[in-house]
Amino acid sequence: MKDILHKEQLMSYAEQLLAPAQVEEIELSEVISDAHGDTHIWGITCDTMEEYWLIEQDSPCALFRKSGIYALARHAYEAYLEQLEQKDIRSELNDRQQYMTS
What's the whole-number average pLDDT of the chain? Predict the structure, then answer.
């Protein structure tokens, strides 16, 4: 029951991001365990026949269209990690800039 509820929450989250498309199916594709903890990668199929990867750690984190370079779940995960690194770098630069102007 808990898994069904969780899946419905993820579907609702994806539909908000993908509107007006409707999510027809969501399936757990892969679980990756590393220094960042457990990451769940869900495969999503919409009524438009487009497919996406939903990356979830503690909460839904990123959505990638399943095509080209992101055809594989692992590639979408690697892109997600790159986004995290970029966000950390920007945050660090902002912190330094605030310190310098204080």
Answer: 87
